[in-house]
Amino acid sequence: MTKRKETQASRPRDREKTGKAILDAVGHLILRDGLSGVGINAVAREAGADKVLIYRYFGDLDGLYRAYAETGDFWWTVEDMLASVEGAATLAEALKAGLRFHAAEMRKRPVTLAVIAAEPENRTPLVVALEEVRERRSLDLMKRIAARYDVPGGADIPALTALLAAAIDYLLARARSIRVYGGVEIKTPRDWERIFTTIDAMIDGALAPAHPKGRKIS
Question: Which residues are CB-neighbours of 167 under 8 A, at least 6 positions away?
Answer without folding.
Answer: none
